[in-house]
């Protein structure tokens, strides 16, 4: 492929964080039998109006449980299984970028070991409270007053590999919260503990009315080998990371960063970069589906967020250039209709659009999220990635 041809091409991957499309065959191992984020939202709510993603092929994906509205897809569509034995953000994104894990990060369903917390408290010069599996919004209401009184940060986890630290911004200033998280990240890089992400969860407000702010920050493990992002960057093909992408990849392989904090600003940023013709690979994470609605079992909020994104899709595609290819997908599930407030082990959906994308191509059920990264690498660099199978030849027409 000539340099001019490569430089004209762009790939855009938008991750609708937690928008799963049905349980994987091993869902029972994760306690997630019956999970189907999209299908169950539609069932419980009674309707889910996504005409633009449906037009691309979302409802035509196997077992989507969505109404096809009688439309013939204008794009390609399918679903992908996760090779990594996990259901968290880091593993999902890494595998999507061509780096599945042979062994998933460790989880702590009984809380973190005393030896770890003792060392953590010694290093930050404060005690901690909590140390349990909990919902982030619930635990700040329950322990917020004690935190404000004592200045001890709230430590908690979930079914995923996370060490979350909640603190009031008026009690522990934001930069100090981030410093505390950096200390935790260093401790949790040890193979003995090996947690996927440390997450700062700042909040504000008063007793009985504490609310989380948008100053969340994720501290992921650094990828242990190159991802597609690193490889593109090394080939002079700029990577744009929007939302928490830079955090997930520990700032590796991301050339241009816009750390947006919600869906609205993430969508705006994506459109702006598209219009400006910036970057070769635009990688966007839209976090609200997961953070605001999935983990809070807010079915109506989740549905409205999906419909809002769908309404913006014509604007996104209208900003695309001749040789742009758009992929819309997810990183795991988080079914808000189930009793659990944790992620769910689900297939992720994939719809692909662009002026050179063939119409009504069923990509079937793919064996790994890495097929996305392999296709991006194939399209932009003209090379084969060593994990996953590119579906470029199935979808692309000159």
Structural key phrases:
alpha/beta; Alpha-Beta Plaits; 398 residues; Alkaline Phosphatase, subunit A; eight-stranded mixed β-sheet; disordered N terminus; six-stranded mixed β-sheet
CATH class of the largest domain: Alpha Beta
The geometry reads as: globular
Which bin fits the share of residues in helices? 25-40%
Uncertain regions spanning at least 5 consecutive residues: 1-5
* N- to C-terminal distance: 14 Å
Helix-strand pattern, N to C?
HEHHEHHEHEEHEEEHEHEHEHHEEEHH
Spatially, the strands of the biggest sheet line up as: 10-9-11-1-12-13-2-14
- Largest sheet entry: 8 strands, mixed
Mean pLDDT: 95
CATH architecture of the largest domain: 3-Layer(aba) Sandwich
Number of strands: 14
Separate helix tally: 14
Could you explain how this protein is built, in words?
With 398 residues, the protein is α/β, with parallel strands linked by helices. The protein folds into two domains: 272 residues, Alkaline Phosphatase, subunit A (3-Layer(aba) Sandwich), CATH 3.40.720.10; 107 residues, Phosphopentomutase (Alpha-Beta Plaits), CATH 3.30.70.1250. Helices cover 34% and strands 18% of the residues. The protein is built from 14 helices and 14 strands. The strands form two sheets. The protein has an eight-stranded mixed sheet with strand order 10-9-11-1-12-13-2-14, sandwiched between helices. Strands 3, 4, 5, 6, 7 and 8 form a six-stranded mixed sheet that branches. α6 links the parallel β3 and β4. α5 packs across α7, α10 runs parallel beside α12 and α11 packs antiparallel against α12. The longest helix has 20 residues. The protein starts with a helix and ends with a helix. The N terminus is likely disordered.
